[in-house]
Amino acid sequence: MDPSTQILTEQAHAKINLYLHVTGKRPDGYHLLDSLVVFAGAGDSLQYQPGAEPLHLELTGRFGQTLGADAAGPDNLVMKAAAALRSVSGSSAHVQGGRLVLTKELPVASGIGGGSADAAAAIRLLARAWQVDVPVGTLMHLAEKLGADVPVCVASQTARMEGIGEHLSAAPHLPTCGMVLVNCGQAVSTPDVFRKRDSAFRERAILPAEWKSAQDMANDLARLGNCLEAPACEVCPPVRTVLSALAEQADCLLARMSGSGATCFALFPSAEDARKAAHALGAEHPSWWLWGGALA
Ligand SMILES: C[C@](O)(CO)[C@H](O)COP(=O)(O)OP(=O)(O)OC[C@H]1O[C@@H](n2ccc(N)nc2=O)[C@H](O)[C@@H]1O
Ligand SMILES: Nc1ncnc2c1ncn2[C@@H]1O[C@H](COP(=O)(O)OP(=O)(O)OP(=O)(O)O)[C@@H](O)[C@H]1O
User: Fold this and answer.
1) pLDDT tens for residues 32-86?
2) Active-site positions?
3) Interval 159-204: pLDDT, tens
4) According to its UniProt record, in which pathway does this protein act (predicted)?
5) So what's the ipTM on this one?
6) Closest CA to 34 of 207, 290, 229, 252
């Protein structure tokens, strides 16, 4: 096959905030954060087939229709990422049109950075396809302008995230563990949750260089928290039900909300334990979106 028309794919893994401390607020209203971010095996996927036609996006997958009528238009974060990348691509890049297909498997506006992960996947995919040769710093700056969660999603690897999301540093070495994700089906607006937050700012966490077991990690994380959990429960009361249901599962080590919600996660000793718990929860709550497995 001609390499210039070959279909390329990138995964857009769900971003999970294992803890999330709001440590301050900037004069422009954005909040300063301290968070340990990991990526779950669950995710959207983005395909690109280069072609002569103008670049366009098609949506498919379980949540492909939930984004609304203009979902595949220029406001989709994938198209915004493509436009931003085009604007920094030098004359040596092979910028082309063609067809992007986003398979949307992550619930929308759910605290697991679906749109951010999609934008980040678009940056990785198109930078590769178009042979964009710019410094990583330029790509990260471009990512930051698309959304606070986009820089960490570009790397798509466990990281400590600070600033408003743009300062990334090494995270503790994580032990093997399993994770369950649950979303009750109610979209939650990130700005609404930040607006409702009225607790005191929390301190920056002290983290070890590594956790030797999932239990050790859960014990340390239990002393930390998600400062957006209480305001998200006000905006979306079913979050409380989801957290209780997760905590009741056999072998659950920790149950917490991710980001601004409403998706909650639970940690388990293994991916197999997590899959079993997701299966049990699915039988009890057929309307919930559920995923269980290993970290990405
Ligand atoms: C809460 C997190 O999910 C944690 O990972 C992210 O910080 C949210 O990242 P995001 O959805 O990419 O956020 P953006 O799209 O940049 O911002 C949406 C809105 O959330 C609020 N926002 C976001 C990030 C941040 N550090 N402080 C904020 O106050 C602002 O009101 C902003 O207008
Ligand atoms: N590709 C996309 N996928 C999801 N949402 C998108 C996309 N493009 C634009 N959006 C818009 O972004 C908003 C936030 O969606 P997203 O799923 O990223 O939220 P989130 O999971 O709460 O993100 P975060 O955890 O970063 O706050 C949606 O309400 C939607 O209007």
Assistant:
1) 999 999 999 999 999 999 999 999 999 999 999 888 778 889 999 999 999 999 9
2) 15, 149
3) 999 999 999 999 999 999 999 999 999 999 999 999 999 999 999 9
4) Isoprenoid biosynthesis; isopentenyl diphosphate biosynthesis via DXP pathway; isopentenyl diphosphate from 1-deoxy-D-xylulose 5-phosphate: step 3/6
5) 0.96
6) 207
**Cα 160 to ligand 2 centroid, rounded to whole Å:** 21
Closest ligand 2 atom to residue 76 Cα is 8
The yes-or-no verdict on residue 136 having pLDDT over 80 is yes
User: What are the residue boundaries of the structural domains of the chain, listed by start?
Assistant: 3-169, 178-294
* Nearest Cα residue to atom 19 of ligand 2: 109
Residue 1 pLDDT level (bands cut at 50, 70, 90) = low
- Residues contacting ligand 2 via CB (< 6 Å): 67, 76-78, 108-116, 118, 149, 190, 259-260
Please give the CATH number for the structural domain made up of 178-294.
3.30.70.890
Q: Which fold has domain 3-169?
A: Ribosomal Protein S5; domain 2 (3.30.230)
Chain-centre distance of CA 148, in angstroms? 11
235 in a labelled binding site: no
Q: Which atom of ligand 2 is nearest to the CA of 188?
A: 22
Whole-prediction pTM: 0.97
> Can 3-169 and 178-294 be said to share one CATH topology?
no
Contact residues for 26 (Cβ-Cβ < 8 A; gap 6+): 32, 164
